[in-house]
Amino acid sequence: MRKNPGLAALSFAALTLLLLAASAIAQTYPSRPIRFIVPFPQGGLDASSEQGSRLRDATDRESYAAAVLIAQAPVASPQYPNRPIRFIVPFPPGGSTDTYGRIVARKLAETLGQAIVIDNRPGAGGALGAELAAKAVPDGYTIWIGQDGNLALGPAMRANNNYDPVRDFAPVSLLVKTPQVIAVNEGSPLASLKDLVAAAKKNPGALTYGSAGLGTTGHILGVFFNQAAGIEVTHVPYKGAAPAMLDLRGGRITYLATSMPAAVQFAKDGKIRVLATSGRRRARVMPDIPTVAESGYPNFETIIWHGVLAPAKTPRDVVMRLNREIVAALALPDVQKLLLAEGGELSPCTPAEFAEFLKSEVAKWAKVIKQAGITAE
Predict the structure, then answer these.
(1) How far is it, in rounded angstroms, from Cα 69 to Cα 67?
(2) What structural domains does the chain harbor?
């Protein structure tokens, strides 16, 4: 049997077009030597033989498939970045997540020499933006800022998720970790966390705590503390931190579990009393307030954290370049001043450290949320 010249020509043309497409995607491709695999020894089989014909026809088909894989593979350019980068912020403008994202984006634009385009995609507690980032092309031109809510808490509360917080992202670096507070009204008879636990055990279910809403970090803090202390304090969800703070000051709830930024000024003004902070160490802006762990509950920690991630399978050299630039930015005095204004602590780290931290947070809160029977519905 003779080799079909039409098939060979068609396969060669298809291979040529697909390789050209791959080159167009890479823009600067090729930037290094190319390996050309020939699946036969020099000389090969006689094309006129029946066996040789079948093998060469198979080779045509396999080469076509290989070309498709080459064209679809993400390619990292040594000149990265050579065009603007989209930075997805999964919350509306004005909040902490947006503020942190914009601070980092400005510095990245300066050091990378390319525009960093903020793309606010709020919705579903940050899940909408996370899903968008998970499905983006992993070429380094889409990054996003994630946090505990849409990476650890939200997925654990939903029966169905459109993204996996561990498998679908390539962590770049943590940015900030911010403790929460347990606070009471200025006129409350509860002067310490010990007093709060004693009162809760004396009157199970009678005490209440407020949060900014169902599934928020404040809600989960209260659940976690109930479990750790063996008490039953009833959750009262509000539509935001402001109305919750209003009811705390009005004496309508026993305590409030809220973020440091929402509480720090009220505490300084003497309008609320903070019983404990939830970080591993005492808060920098409240050095005289003990942590929950210090108050008798070792290993208790609930923090609000933010970090930068890319879609999974983003080239490692791109992830490392972004990590270096972010870590360098976090060392700058002007960046530190802006990021620390809300009471958190800077937390630069390697991609591997962030990945391990993310895994631990996902596992930790999945257990707490499952035990409490909390769902997003």
Answers:
(1) 5
(2) 5-72 (no CATH), 85-175+305-372 (3.40.190.150), 178-277 (3.40.190.10)
Backbone phi and psi for residue 36, each to the nearest 5 degrees, phi listed first: -115, 105
Q: Is the model's pTM score more than 0.70?
A: yes
Return the structure tokens found at 196: 């709060």
3-state SS of the chain is CCCCHHHHHHHHHHHHHHHHHHHHHHCCCCCCCCCCCCCCCCCCCCCCCHHHHHHHHHHHHHHHHHHHHHHHCCCCCCCCCCCCEEEEECCCCCCHHHHHHHHHHHHHHHHHCCCEEEEECCCHHHHHHHHHHHCCCCCCCEEEEEEHHHHHHHHHHCCCCCCCCCCCEEEEEEEEEEEEEEEEECCCCCCCHHHHHHHHHHCCCCCEEEECCCCCHHHHHHHHHHHHHCCCCEEEECCCHHHHHHHHHCCCCCEEEEEHHHHHHHHHCCCEEEEEECCCCCCCCCCCCCECCCCCCCCCCCEEEEEEEEECCCCHHHHHHHHHHHHHHHCCHHHHHHHHHHCCEECCCCHHHHHHHHHHHHHHHHHHHHHHCCCCC
What single letter denotes the amino acid at residue 203? N
Q: What is the mean pLDDT of each run of 10 residues along the chain (377 residues)?
A: 46 45 49 59 46 42 40 58 97 91 97 97 93 98 97 94 97 97 97 97 96 92 96 94 94 96 93 96 94 95 96 98 98 94 92 98 96 86
User: Would you give the distance in Å from CA 107 to the centre of its chain?
Assistant: 19
Spatial distance between the Cα atoms of 138 and 111, rounded to a whole number of angstroms: 21
Amino acid at 334: D
Rounded Cα–Cα distance for residues 247 and 348 (Å): 37
Q: What does the block give as tokens for 99?
A: 């503020």
β-partners of residue 34 are none
Side chain identity at 36, as an amino acid letter? F
d(CA 112, CA 84): 10
